[in-house]
Each structure stands twice: as structure tokens, then as C-alpha cells.
Amino acid sequence: MYKNKKLVIALMAGAMLLTGCGQDTKKLVADGQQAFLQGDYAKAVELFQKVSDSGAAEGDLWLGRCYASGKGVSESEKKAFELFQSASTKGNVDATIELAKCYLDGHGVSGDRVKGRELMEAGAKAGSAEGKATMALWALDGKVNLPKDSLLAYVKDAESSGNPAGILASGRLLAKGIGTARDIKGAVEKYRKADELGNSDATVELAYALYNGAGVDRDPEKAFALFKKAADDNNASGIAGMGMCYYEGYGVARNHAKAIDNFKRAEGKNNPAGQWWLGKCYYYGDGVVKSESEGIQLMKKAANQGYAPAEFSMAYNYEHGIGVPFDREKALALYTRSAEAGYAPAQTNLGIIYYRGDLRLAKSEKEAFEWFCRGAEGGDNAAMFNLYKCFMDGIGTEPHEETAMQWLKNAAEYGNEKAISILNGTK
User: Per-residue pLDDT tens for 170-179?
Assistant: First the structure.
């Protein structure tokens, strides 16, 4: 359940204002945090329990985090929820944020996304850096509406406070070019910094960058190691990423059994990446008993959570009437959402749609070229190959043979078979 144990402790140790605590209690909390960082979880729990028994909100908060992560005690989402609720009732804003996450993820309580969002928003308005960062990340994922000025202000405040989630959000702004010029390499550096501070979501973002070669050279072994690092921290997206690597034999020996096991673990946590991968496995009968209907339903669940690859898959299904009614408008909307979320294959596909004028979209070579650029930056070899053709033939840009040949080489390096054939003189 708990994603960012290390980062929260690192950020708040010695800096958190302890509500209703005396000096002795402050020292107990600080000593507990230090014990946790040193891996002495039993001692940390003992100290946090003393603070909790004294009635101080911070004891409930930190003890709840121990139960959420299963460090020093048996993992219990229900117990963690009860402790977060107690601390929040006592006015602890950080506990309110943890409580919001419980409601959002259905951890220790029946899931209630409306309640979760209300609590998260209240925490952000109360000045919680974690709350501000989370609201910003939700806005970037299209889960909540947040005015651009508020989005930028939230990210700035959260990052300036040293909050790792705020640093992650800042990287996402760079990747999307919101409030600043798009800078994929700069985004990767933000992910790297947040990862070093213990944010497991940033660890996953960095892993995907290394997996796709987006803003950094591809590194299969490092990508797998980072997915595993996040998975070891119980991050569901990291678990799904591990499954993906096992499925594809990327950075680790191919193992379908381990892949399916990881996909199921992630799906069990309502993780959209796990749902999407498991859905594909069911649809094609790959490692599981084939069930196209089960596969479509899982992919749809992932798409409904705003998971860009699943939106892309469902867009294709709606475009061709596969398992769902034929619907051009839904297909175009999902292709666009997936592309705007930064999914490189969707960006490439949207470029093709603009180039052809498909799905009743007005033909535009300029738009096509721009989407191919974004797809190529994201590491999609088909986009790189299309840029080769754009620069060779002057499609949406001025022709430039030298640049065209560089994109052809890039596409070949990333495994594009058409590019490889041309360079080998076989086509």
C-alpha cells in the first residue's frame, strides 16, 4: 500500500511541527524516525507507540505509516486507516493526506474517490506540500480540474519545499511543456532527483524513461532494477513494470509465469498498468486461458482510470469495432487523450491520423509532423521513421536530407525494421 516511506521521513524529520507535543515527545518522534531510517523498525514502532499512547497526533501518524508499510509490525491497512483517521481528527494535515490516499485506493476502508479528493484538496489548501503535489499530479493526469495558474503555483510551492512528489510534478510539467518549454532530458533529471529522495512513483517514471529511451539512453538492466526497486517498496506500477520486463525479456530473462504473477498482483491493487497488461494476456490467451471479453473489460477499466496505453488500446478497439461498438468519435477522443498524456505510440498514431485526415479529422501535415516529433522524443521508433520521411519529402517541415538520415539511423537503432532494411540496402 505505502509508496513513499523513506521520502516522508526524510522530509519531515526534524522539520515537522508537532501538534500538542512537548519537547520529550518531539524527541521520541525524531528518534523513531531515525530508527526507521536505519532499518530498526521494531525500535521505531516502540517509540511511535509511546507517542501515540500520549495522545499526540504525530504518534498516530507515524505508527499508521508503519502499519501501512508492514515495517516493524504486521501490515494492516485497516489499522493504518484507523490511525490516520485519529491523527487527522486531531488536526494533523499530513494524516489528512494519508487518509485521502486510503479512501482513494480503498486501503483499510471502502473506496470513496469523492471523499478522497475532498480530503486531498483540503490538505492542499491547508498548506500540505504533499497535498499540493498530489493535486498537481492528478491535474496532469486529467483526474481533477485545476486552473493552470493554480497548477503551476502548487508545483512551485511543493518543489521549493523539497517535497519529492513536487519535484516529480515539476518533471511532468517539463515533459508536457506546461508553463515552460518542453524538455524531456530536464524531466528525467527531475525524476532522478525525486527517486533519490525515495519517491517510488518517480522511480517508475525514471524506469520508463530508461525503458523507452526518452530523454536518456535506453538501459534494459537499469530499467528493470528500478522497476524492482519500486516494486520492493510495494508500488503497484513498479510491480506492473517488473511484469512487463519479464513478459518482454527486457533487462531480465523472459519468464511468462513471473510476468502474469506480477500483472495479477498489480491488478489486485487496482493498478491500471497491471489491468492493461493482464487484459492483453487474456485477450490473446498469452499465459492464461484466453478470454477476449475478460481482456476487453480489463483494458477498459485501465482506460477509465486514464491510463494512456489502455486509452490507446481502447481507441483502436472503438475505431475497428473490436469487442466494443464501432465509434469514430470515441476512438479519436481516446487517441487524443493518450497522446496528450505523453504515450509515444499514441502520439505517432495521432500524427498518422492528421497526415491522412482519418476519423473525420482535418488533414494537416504540420500537425502530423509535430506529433511525430513528440512520439520520437518519447522513444517510439515508428515516429522516428516517420520523421525520416518528413525530412526527406518536406512533409510538415522543410526538407533536410542530413536530418532525415539521422532519424533513419535513430529508428534503426531502436529496432525499426523498415529503417534497418533501408540502411542495409534491402529495400
Answer: 999 999 999 9
